[in-house]
Design goal:
The complex is a heterodimer of chains A (about 70) and B (about 575).
Chain A (H helix, E strand, L loop, with lengths): L5 H21 L14 H28 L1
Helix pairs in contact in A: 1-2
Chain B lengths: L8 H20 L7 H6 L6 H12 L2 H14 L5 H5 L2 H17 L5 H8 L2 H34 L3 H50 L1 H15 L26 H17 L3 H8 L4 H35 L18 H9 L4 H37 L5 H28 L1 H15 L2 H10 L5 H21 E3 L17 E3 L2 H26 L6 H4 L21 H18 L2
Parallel strand pairs in B: 1-2
The chains are: A mainly alpha (about 70), B mainly alpha (about 575).
Chain lengths: ~70, ~575
């Protein structure tokens, strides 16, 4: 197909993860997190997105090396 | 709006990254659309899981998100009937029983199946009404999105309308259906991962599931219903006046669960196209079954926020839905208000991007279905019969541009004439209501003739209009809501929803009976050889594949149904 859709998905969520965790770290302890009931939701959910993006990239990579074999 | 949302740089950055990726996918795939089948059907090369997620995502437009969340607030968990009753059984049916004919006949569209099975006029009727409908519905959802963004973010209406239209246009123009499908998969994950934390935060705030039930019991009692009316899906369906939907169980099961649901999931080319693009018969049959699994979990993502919103609003805490001019709650603001309430900058950008993504997936679904039906079923059939494939490909690209422009035009029309839009949606509802009877008879009764199908459809559509004109929902005014034929109306329904369901039941029944009767009176012009692959009794069973039972369409379908039954029982 020329493009494994898991690659762009993994990349995009990876970038979102980096952006959100980075922003979450920079704003840790800020008043804005009263909105999210005291959770630093950027840091926490950013970490989830990083993991999701990583898994997608890993799956794409595994399929690529499997296809070459 | 007193509480419009202020977006920060980080939020715009996330939205920008998303735009780069959807356009990037289109750009990467630009060389893959070499033939018209590549452009319109992805060269029938899509793996089952991708087709399955796209099947679901194309149906998950912004209007679905906003509307189902609103219904969650208005009617509670009973809204899940639109999923567990009104979608899953039909998705299993189309995968297990109908896909062999759609995919096996090599028809390139649903109207083309009607041409092969019946005749030209049946195809024409379906193709023209479907093409018009897709343009209008994408225009209306575009209008709704731009209006919402204007209200919520203060964005310019025209700017958000054109930007979203141009992005969808660009990625479909470049990569055709493949690009739409790939983006739908991306959008699917974005919608799930963008809204999941919202549900979590809302549920924590309301005091968990138990807190939600307790608060909703008070909401129900305050409105004169039994305490469980918002949190039990079937318990108060015994009579139409006992639940906020105003529908009784039979109208629900037959109208929504059978006629409307099967009519949409089994015959609407917007979703069926995704399965037709699958890379094998087995993949095509699994497509709707794979889609059914996340579909049955969506109530927790979409309906539960609505339930939380009304529970918190009526409990009188810090969260409140806005009111409309007439003093009632503005239920359509559930998702936007919850985003503003619980999401700080950063994740707020993700939530808004998810809303944008749901809008784009729905619109791309409409545009790709429109360009295919227009090119194959209207252009190639009536305008230029001997068109070369290269010519069809360029017509497809031009049609994509035209379809998007027409949608934008419709969106502007909607700003001026909201009544016309309501009227058109009503007409489409009449045309769609009987459709499933035609397909059911076409696929499972070889004697059904072209005249039978066509006139059955016409009579079914007329029956829908007639029923609508003779009945009226309680406390509605005569006109677009019904009752325009006789005064006083013959029957008053408890709610508009009940009237819709019964309109569908009548339309289907009339079409079913009329198709059988007229088929008996007319000659079958199609020989058995012509009908092979199109009708159940004349099609050889596909060879049993050597797969684990749960990987076969039948096994997977049974599993999906069992899960849907379990959900109905748990939330009974």
């Amino acid at each position: 197909m020329g493009l494994d859709i898991r690659t762009p998905i993994g990349l995009m969520f990876g970038i979102f993860g980096v952006l959100l965790t980075g922003y979450g770290l920079a704003t840790n302890g800020s008043d804005v997190y009263q909105r999210s009931l005291g959770h630093n939701v950027n840091l926490e959910w950013g970490a989830v997105l990083l993991v999701f993006g990583g898994v997608m990239l890993w799956l794409a990579r595994r399929a690529r090396s499997g296809g070459a074999r | 709006m007193h509480d419009s949302i202020q977006l920060g740089g980080i939020d715009y950055l996330i939205l920008g990254v998303y735009f780069v990726f959807v356009l990037g996918i289109g750009w990467t795939l630009r060389r893959h659309a070499k033939t018209s089948e590549d452009f319109f059907l992805s060269g029938r090369s899509i793996p089952a899981w991708i087709a399955g997620l796209a099947f679901l995502s194309a149906n998950l437009g912004a209007q679905e998100m906003i509307g189902m969340a609103a219904s969650g607030a208005k009617y509670g968990i009973a809204t899940s009937h639109f999923y567990w009753v009104g979608a899953i059984p039909a998705m299993v049916f189309v995968g297990v029983f109908m896909m062999p004919f759609y995919y096996g006949s090599r028809a390139r569209s649903v109207p083309e199946y009607l041409k092969l099975r019946f005749d030209e006029k049946t195809r024409g009727f379906n193709a023209i009404s479907f093409a018009t409908m897709t343009v209008f519905s994408s225009g209306i959802s575009m209008y709704a999105l731009a209006k919402l963004l204007e209200l919520l973010l203060g964005w310019d209406f025209h700017l958000s309308l054109w930007i979203s239209a141009v992005i969808v246009l660009a990625y479909i123009y470049l990569g055709g259906l493949t690009s739409a499908i790939y983006n739908e998969v991306l959008q699917f994950f974005l919608i799930v991962l963008g809204f999941a934390p919202l549900v979590y935060l809302g549920l924590s705030d309301v005091g968990g599931w138990d807190g939600l039930v307790a608060k909703l019991d008070r909401v129900a009692s305050a409105r004169g219903y039994a305490p469980g009316a918002w949190t039990e899906s079937w318990a108060s369906m015994g009579s139409a006046s006992a639940n906020p939907m105003g529908v009784e169980w039979f109208g629900m099961a037959m109208g929504l669960g059978f006629v409307l649901s099967f009519g949409y999931w089994c015959t609407d080319f917007l979703v069926v196209q995704r399965a037709m693009a699958a890379n094998s018969m087995a993949a095509a049959r699994r497509t709707p079954l794979i889609a059914a699994v996340p579909k049955m979990l969506f109530p927790f993502l979409i309906i539960v926020p609505g339930m939380i919103a009304i529970a918190l609003t009526e409990a009188g805490g810090s969260f409140s839905l806005p009111k409309m001019a007439d003093g009632s709650w503005d239920y359509t603001m559930v998702i936007p208000r919850m985003l503003a309430q619980y999401f700080p900058p950063g994740i707020l950008g993700l939530g808004l991007t998810a809303l944008m993504a749901s809008f784009m997936s729905g619109m791309a679904g409409n545009v790709t279905a429109f360009n295919t039906v227009w090119t194959y079923d209207i252009y190639q059939s009536y305008i230029k019969k001997d068109a070369s494939d290269a010519h069809l490909l360029s017509v497809g690209r031009m049609t994509t541009v035209f379809g998007v422009l027409a949608s934008v035009g419709t969106a502007y029309l909607a700003t001026q004439f909201n009544n016309i839009m309501d009227f058109l949606q009503l007409v489409f509802a009449f045309v769609n209501a009987p459709l499933f009877a035609t397909f059911l008879l076409g696929m499972f009764w070889r004697r059904a003739t072209g005249h039978g199908a066509f006139f059955g459809l016409v009579l079914g559509t007329m029956a829908a209009a007639l029923h609508h004109g003779l009945t009226l929902p309680a406390s509605a005014r005569v006109g677009i809501k019904g009752g325009w034929l006789v005064s006083p109306p013959l029957h008053a329904y408890t709610s508009e929803m009940a009237q819709n369901f019964w309109t569908a039941i009548w339309a289907w029944t009339v079409c079913f009976v009329a198709t059988i009767a007229i088929s008996h009176l007319t000659v079958q012009r199609k020989s058995d050889a012509e009908l092979t692959g199109l009708v159940y009794s004349l099609t050889p069973r596909p060879p049993r594949e050597a797969l684990a039972w749960w990987k076969t369409p039948e096994g997977l379908g049974a599993l999906v149904l069992a899960l849907a039954v379990a959900l109905n029982v748990i939330f009974w």
